[in-house]
Design goal:
single chain, 407 residues, alpha+beta, eight-stranded mixed sheet, 10 helices, 30% helix
Length: 407
């Protein structure tokens, strides 16, 4: 592989990853520093093929996240910005509001804690008794609920494409990075699977499901590994049962929000996701197994610590994955009218969840800087909602790194 030679750069900033975070970063760089040459390398034939294009399309309000965290700050800000962006670029979207519903008495303290958290994050929330739920969702039953008015829906795949078009970046699809040569005194060169070499002053790692691998190729230890969790969805055959968005009360021990119902911009209703271990980074079904990737997951001590700590929760998720009746029973806690045959399987997604060596799930966005590089090491949901402010933050750090490298 050719080495980096000072003055022989193909671009100023090389972004690895053409999902919504990488494209938002390219978009932010173009606005913060016009004239900056940005190249985006994406291994797929087009943008938004993984987490961005395979989620439930929710514009999250920010109610769930610890006050002061990056997730809380960027989700609240990003939700308003995403609605504005969609309106400006004529992207299908709607501000629908949503219900978070408690169906058991032991969930009530967690529901009340969410009310407080939402208010600390600057959100207007309405508390509902069981009888008031029908004002929003006549078919949903529960003991109490929260209505969050700023939640919405949009088409994130289209958002990503608009960001790509508006960024002014050089977009290179089918460009899988296989080697990285980073020279702190010179810059970064990467080799793609097609044999192309791209040289840049700075590297930005927005590789999602493969971000830890790219960090290691760059020579930086991320301190965590991506453990992929597949989220399986169904489509509701009777979408008239749900008007908008309905969520259960989440378990604070997990970053997953539980099986929920989401009416999309196309009028259909998604049901899900659950959260089961994927047998490959892009393991969208049980048949997809990549031994090398699975071996890397099993070889990370945090994976075993996580399994030991949460085996009971995981067993329930596996059961719902393998049994549609079990999945339907989970849905009926919120929507009693659902029958097993109302659930029609649809496309799954995989969450790129960073796990520390001790088995701790990284619960906030994680962005780390290194010489000539910025690594985004944990950006699962609500990263799509928060993508515009995340992109600006990554761009700021990248431009600071560029300036430092020129001194």
């Amino acid at each position: 592989m050719a080495q980096v030679v000072a003055g022989s750069y193909d671009c100023d900033v090389m972004v690895i990853g053409g999902g919504i975070v990488g494209l938002s970063t390219a978009y932010a760089l173009g606005r913060a520093a016009p004239g900056t040459r940005v190249t985006v390398l994406e291994k797929e034939p087009g943008p938004a093929r993984h987490q961005t294009g395979r989620n439930s399309g929710v514009i999250h309000s920010g109610i769930y996240y610890r006050p002061g965290s990056l997730k809380a700050r960027y989700a609240v800000r990003g939700a308003a910005e995403m609605v504005k962006f969609c309106a400006e670029y004529d992207i299908p979207h709607a501000v629908t509001g949503k219900l978070i519903v408690a169906t058991a008495r032991e969930e009530l303290p967690r529901l009340h804690a969410l009310v407080q958290r939402g208010r600390e994050n600057g959100l207007a929330v309405r508390e509902l008794c069981g009888a008031q739920i029908a004002e929003y969702e006549p078919e949903v039953e529960g003991l109490a609920a929260i209505h969050v008015g700023t939640t919405g829906i949009c088409d994130y795949g289209t958002v990503a494409r608009r960001l790509a078009e508006a960024s002014g970046a050089d977009l290179r699809f089918g460009a899988e990075v296989v080697r990285v040569d980073r020279r702190p005194d010179r810059g970064v060169a990467v080799l793609t699977a097609a044999g192309d070499i791209v040289r840049a002053r700075m590297l930005v790692n927005c590789a999602g499901l493969h971000c830890d691998r790219i960090a290691l190729l760059t020579g930086d230890e991320p301190g965590a590994r991506i453990v992929p969790f597949r989220g399986e969805y169904y489509e509701l055959a009777r979408p008239d049962l749900v008007r908008g968005l309905v969520y259960p009360v989440p378990d604070p021990a997990f970053p997953f929000l539980g099986v929920h119902l989401t009416r999309g911009t196309d009028g259909g209703v998604h049901v899900g996701p659950n959260a089961v271990p994927a047998l490959a980074r892009e393991g969208y079904d049980w048949r997809t197994v990549r031994p090398r990737e699975l071996g890397a997951t099993l070889g990370w001590p945090g994976s075993w610590q996580l399994a030991r700590r949460h085996w009971r929760y995981g067993t329930g998720e596996l059961h719902r994955s393998l049994s549609r009746p079990a999945f339907a029973r989970a849905v009926r806690r919120l929507l009693p009218a659902v029958r097993d045959e109302d659930l029609v399987p649809t496309a799954a997604g995989v969450r790129a969840q960073a796990v520390l060596r001790d088995g701790t799930l990284v619960d906030d966005f994680l962005i780390r800087e290194a010489p000539r590089a910025v690594h985004v090491l944990n950006a699962p949901s609500p990263a799509a909602t928060a993508s515009l402010p995340i992109g600006r933050e990554i761009a700021r750090r990248t431009l600071d790194g560029l300036a430092a490298s020129e001194r």
